[in-house]
Design a protein that fits this description.
This protein has a single domain, classed as MFS general substrate transporter like domains (Growth Hormone, Chain: A), CATH 1.20.1250.20. The protein has about 375 residues and is mostly helical. The chain is built from 14 helices and no strands. It is globular, with a radius of gyration of 20 Å.
């Protein structure tokens, strides 16, 4: 009976995630062009807005993770997160200048408060033997929702236009918020597992090292928007950008579950994480040395596989390395590091793109990826994981 409840919780969370990503990714393919062409922003502004969004994600997940452990409740943060995402897209629909995007982008990314508590719920309902698989299922549904959202965008954007597409994209997230509120029932936490606070100095050495190397990698892992704009500048028309985004998202969807399952079977997250670093290294290398359409498509496929794999394996590894009573806090702290590094990553990439050369951000990322990959060798895994 207990196993059935766990499976039902995972299923409900994955379905809600599917709905939210359907709505969010229905607008992502047109987002860079909407910001730079329709609202007249340049690449520096685009990098700032995307980077700011990632930074807000990190702060919101850190805070929600901490308070989720402190009050021993997860669901409220997940429900509010999906609700914020839906409302923000209504805001995008009414924005008349790029400056007006900023508060709604903050609200949108603040909706990512759902991330750490939701991931903690998945980890709580899992053992070390199926944790990677469950995170893989969640990521697969994320990406399948994204694929459906992109197809929706491709099919209906010519008819709906920007405003109506943004409004339509708000609906699935609002439904997801309602579903989480009504369907999921939280387990009562054992009284023996009491949240005693969170101090960086008390963290396991391996977890600290993993935070450091993940931050270094994130400094070179700029927003996907740059890849789409790069494709646009290399000869793909704006009409093809949703198709390119669909390709990378579909690749991500296919990669998520295999990465999670193999990390369980191999009893090693590091090997799969290192593979995802190699894939990102190849993406940057390909685009540095060839800007042909075929090379760009190959790079986008590899990027999708990288993204699907790294998202799953990082969450599973963090869950393995931290204690159960501070799991949401640890996942939030991890996202805090990633997000705070994402703001300068995209901003610096935009500045280098405009002031020097569009290829320079890729060279910088190659260097940072090499450093973080080397540091990963020194992380000792704890595959058994805290329960």
């Amino acid at each position: 009976m207990e196993d059935k409840k766990k499976k039902n919780t995972v299923k409900a969370l994955t379905l809600a995630s599917f709905l939210n990503d359907f709505g969010s990714d229905a607008i992502y393919p047109i987002w860079p062009i909407f910001v730079t062409t329709i609202l007249g922003a340049n690449m520096v502004v685009l990098g700032f807005i995307d980077g700011l969004g990632d930074a807000i994600v990190s702060v919101s997940q850190a805070l929600s993770g901490y308070y989720s452990d402190r009050i021993q409740k997860r669901k409220i943060f997940v429900s509010l997160g999906y609700f914020f995402g839906g409302v923000s897209r209504i805001g995008y629909a009414v924005a008349g200048t790029w400056q007006w995007l900023i508060p709604f982008r903050i609200l949108d990314r603040a909706g990512k408060m759902r991330g750490a508590p939701r991931d903690a719920m998945i980890a709580d309902e899992s053992s070390a033997a199926d944790r990677g698989k469950n995170f893989g299922i969640l990521s697969t549904f994320d990406n399948l929702g994204a694929v459906c959202g992109i197809i929706f965008c491709i099919a209906l954007f010519p008819l709906l236009g920007y405003k109506n597409l943004f409004l339509a994209a708000a609906i699935p997230s609002l439904i997801g918020a309602l579903m989480v509120t009504l369907v999921i029932k939280e387990r009562k936490k054992p009284e023996t597992k009491i949240f005693k606070g969170f101090r960086f100095s008390n963290l396991d050495r391996n977890f600290k090292l993993f935070l450091y190397l993940s931050g270094i990698f994130a400094l070179g892992s700029f927003s996907y928007s740059f890849l789409l704009v790069f494709a646009n500048k290399s000869g793909f028309s704006a009409a093809y950008l949703p198709v390119l985004y669909l390709i990378l998202t579909f690749a991500s969807s296919l990669a998520s579950l295999p990465f999670g399952r193999y990390s369980d079977r191999l009893k090693s997250r590091k090997k799969l994480l290192f593979l995802s670093y190699i894939l990102w290294f190849l993406v940057c290398g390909i685009l540095v040395y060839s800007q042909s359409k075929a090379a760009i498509i190959v790079a986008l496929v590899l990027y999708g596989i990288h993204k699907g794999g790294i998202t799953v394996v990082q969450k599973a590894l963090v869950s393995d390395l931290c204690a159960a009573e501070v799991r949401a806090t640890s996942l939030g702290a991890f996202q805090l590091v990633i997000g705070l590094c994402a703001l300068p990553a995209s901003l610096v990439a935009g500045l280098l793109w405009v002031a020097v050369n569009p290829l320079i951000p890729f060279f910088l990322s190659l260097v940072l990826t090499t450093i973080s990959g080397a540091m990963l060798f020194f992380v000792k895994e704890n595959f058994s994981g805290a329960m």
